[in-house]
Structure formats: C-alpha cells, structure tokens
C-alpha cells in the first residue's frame, strides 16, 4: 500500500513543486496545494453529496415505511430496498468517491513529509547521503550509539515518513560533515551542484519551519513540563476539526428534521468527540509542520462542506420531497372524494330508475302484480343504500321508503276494495 502512495506522490509532488517555484514558502505552498487538490477532487465530493441528497429525498417515504412495518423488520428492509431500486438510489454511491479521496489524502501526506524530494527536487542519492551523515553510529549489535545532534537509525530508515524532517532538524549542527559527504559523492549521482549548493537548498526549507524561536520540525508534545508555543498548532487543529464536525452535524440535523435516526447518536459522538480528539492527538505527536497541514485541511473542509450544501442541500431537498408528498396525498384525497361523488350520483340515478320502473309497473300491471313493483322498489332501495355515503343518498333513501309505504297502502286498497 505504501508503494501506491509513493507512486501517487510523484504527480502530486510535481504539483507542489510548481506552486513552490512561484511562492517559495513551505506553508503557504502547502495551503495552496491542499486547496488545489481539493478542487481537483471536488467532483468526487460533489457526487458523494448528491448521493446523500438523494437519500434525503427519500427520507419522508422511508419514515412512513418504518411506521407501517415497525413490527416486521424483514418486510421493512425489503420495502426499503425496493424503494431505493425504484428511485435509482445507491446506498454505496458515495463510497467510491470517499475511498479515492482517502487514497489521495495519503499521497498528499507522503508529499508533505518529504519536502526535499518534492519541493526542492533534490536527488534521492544526495538526500540519502545527508541522512546517513547525520545518523547515530551503531554498536556491534546494531543498536544506536546515542550522539548529540544525530538522528536515530529508526528515523533514518527509508520507510520512515519523518526521515527528511528529522534530518533537517539537525542539519545546521552537521553542516561541515554534510557538505563534505555530498562533495565526496560520484558526480553522476550528485549532479552539477556542489555540497554547499545542496546544503543551502536544504537550509532554505529548514528556515521555513522556524516558529517564534522554536522549530516546527519538533513534535509539540515532549512532556507536560515543556508547554511551548508549538502547542498552539494541535489546539487550533482540534478546534478546526470541532468546527468541521459541528457544521456537518448541523446540516445532517437539518436534513433529518431534527429526528433521531437509528445509530445517529453514535455517529454524533464520533463527529463531535472522537474526530476532534483524534486530530488533537495526532498533531501533538507529529512534527509541528505536519500539524499545519491538518489545520489547512480542516479549514478547507469547512468551506467545502458549506459549498456542497449550497449546491446539494439535503435539508432543502427533503423539504421539497415532503411538499411534493403532501401534494400527492391531497390529490389522492381529492380523487377519493370524486369517486365517492360519482358513487353518489350513480346511486341517485339508480333511485330515479327504481321509481320510474315501479310507477310503470303500477300503471301497466294488473293489481295482482303490484307486489312485483314493491319488490323491485325495495331491491333498488337496498342497492342504493349500499352505495350511500354521506349526504345526498340518505335523503333519497328516505323518500324511497316513503314511496314504498304508499305503494303498500295502494296495494291494500286494491286487494280489499270493500274495507
């Protein structure tokens, strides 16, 4: 994996070197470099934000599913997946951009930890010679023989991230030895420059790390008995990480209408406590210059979060989705009322037909068949009553019942003419 980061560091290193040619200040170049890399990877961040916005759009419908299938988790999961598939929303749509950004991040770190390689473009053979010159000698067992103004074998290891930074820290104390060792190199490896030229290039980088009488090549924390100006770096790093977390939580809360989602409490703890604490811890235990990168990254992350939420704001998208859902529900209620009204109209027409058919039977049929008219009328009344809803039909049913009573009286008179 380290080889991948080193390969990725090559083009990123040339980008940082290009910036440094115009602005020969390590930390200003780092800030602009970080800003430019963020701009290059912005489409990936935008895609991830869009995935989040798409999920926020479905939030109202997902919440209704949660209420409907609260007692059937398997059915709930099935319906949720069906909804995601229907709407073309991928649950992992934002993962690939984040993975790519993480890989790029480690490539950036590789660039930042090697300023001599990437900013000054000093040949690796020259850097190796300088590092070997300022490294502790070893005894017969391969253990360090601690020597003032020398670095450990562990720091000098080619796999150590900090080897260039550690060497720069003791460079001034070993000026003569470093210049002589570089001059003694094969010219084919050393190039056209002398040991003094390379030494001056290294010193130009080292001077960038001077900070109010201290050097940012040191780790800020060296014990509670040594509280110094470098402590400002991790403290600012922790505060900017906290600001980034608070802003992210604010937008997340707006997107969920303040409702606590399953697992969200744990995520809030991660954002609000663990991430700032991690940033604070890391920047206390790495060279101060690396902590400057963390601060730059946090500040740019805050600006990027605000910008992304202006383009794809999950809260606004959710609100729009809720508005559209309310319109759909209102349309459904309206259609139901229309269907009910149509049913009432059909019932009224049925009543009118029943009355007309019954009167026709009374007029055309013999008295002995009047019972058919009554049965027909009662059947239609029963059918109409089945379609009755709220307002129109009941009064019609009452009128129909009255007509049935009148028919019974007529039938009685016809069948008993002498009574």
Brief characterization of the structure:
The chain is an all-alpha fold and about 425 residues long.
Unreliable stretches covering 5 or more consecutive residues: 260-266, 388-393
N- to C-terminal distance = 113 Å
The coarse overall form would be: rod-shaped
Biggest pleated sheet: 2 strands, antiparallel
As a percent range, the share of strand residues is under 5%
Give an overview of the whole structure.
The structure is a single chain. This protein is mostly helical and 419 residues long. A two-stranded antiparallel sheet has the order 1-2. About 3% of the residues have low confidence.
Which features characterize this protein?
mainly alpha, 419 residues, two-stranded antiparallel sheet
Q: Secondary-structure blueprint of this entry?
A:
Blueprint: H1 2-22, H2 26-40, H3 42-68, H4 73-87, H5 95-112, H6 115-118, H7 124-133, H8 153-156, H9 163-169, H10 175-183, H11 187-190, H12 195-207, E1 210-211, E2 214-215, H13 232-255, H14 264-285, H15 288-311, H16 314-364, H17 370-387, H18 392-415
Helix pairs in contact: 1-2, 1-5, 2-15, 3-4, 3-5, 3-15, 3-16, 7-10, 10-12, 13-14, 13-15, 13-16, 14-15, 16-17, 16-18, 17-18
């Amino acid at each position: 994996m380290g080889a991948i980061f080193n390969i990725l560091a090559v083009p990123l290193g040339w980008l940082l070197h290009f910036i440094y040619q115009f602005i020969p200040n390590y930390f200003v170049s780092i800030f602009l470099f970080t800003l430019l890399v963020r701009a290059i990877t912005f489409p990936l961040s935008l895609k991830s934000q869009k995935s989040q916005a798409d999920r926020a759009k479905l939030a109202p419908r997902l919440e209704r599913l949660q209420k409907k299938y609260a007692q059937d988790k398997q059915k709930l999961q099935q319906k949720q997946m069906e909804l995601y598939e229907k709407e073309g929303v991928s649950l992992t749509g934002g993962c690939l951009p984040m993975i790519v950004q993480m890989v790029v991040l480690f490539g950036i770190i590789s660039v930042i930890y090697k300023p001599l390689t990437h900013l000054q473009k000093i040949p690796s053979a020259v850097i190796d010679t300088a590092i070997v010159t300022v490294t502790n000698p070893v005894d017969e067992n391969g253990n360090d023989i601690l020597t003032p103004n020398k670095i450990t074998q562990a720091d000098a290891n080619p796999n150590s991230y900090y080897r260039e930074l550690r060497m720069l820290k003791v460079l001034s104390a070993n000026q003569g030895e470093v210049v002589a060792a570089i001059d003694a190199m094969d010219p084919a490896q050393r190039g056209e420059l002398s040991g003094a030229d390379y030494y001056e290039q290294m010193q130009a980088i080292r001077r960038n790390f001077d900070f109010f009488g201290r050097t940012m090549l040191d780790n800020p924390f060296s014990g509670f008995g040594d509280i110094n100006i470098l402590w400002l770096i991790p403290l600012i790093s922790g505060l900017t990480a906290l600001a980034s977390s608070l802003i992210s939580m604010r937008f997340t809360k707006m997107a969920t209408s303040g409702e606590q989602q399953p697992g969200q409490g744990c995520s809030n703890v991660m954002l609000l406590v663990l991430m700032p604490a991690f940033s604070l811890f890391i920047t206390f235990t790495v060279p101060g210059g690396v902590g400057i990168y963390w601060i730059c990254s946090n500040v740019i992350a805050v600006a990027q979060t605000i910008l992304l939420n202006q383009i794809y704001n999950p809260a606004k998208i959710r609100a729009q989705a809720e508005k559209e859902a309310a319109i759909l529900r209102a349309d459904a209620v309206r259609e139901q009322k229309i269907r009910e009204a149509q049913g009432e109209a059909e019932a009224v027409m049925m009543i009118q037909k029943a009355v007309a058919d019954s009167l026709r039977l009374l007029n055309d049929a013999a008295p002995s068949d009047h019972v058919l008219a009554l049965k027909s009328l009662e059947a239609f009344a029963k059918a109409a009553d089945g379609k009755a809803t709220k307002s129109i039909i009941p009064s019609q049913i009452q009128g129909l019942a009255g007509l049935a009573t009148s028919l019974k009286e007529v039938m009685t008179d016809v069948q008993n003419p002498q009574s």
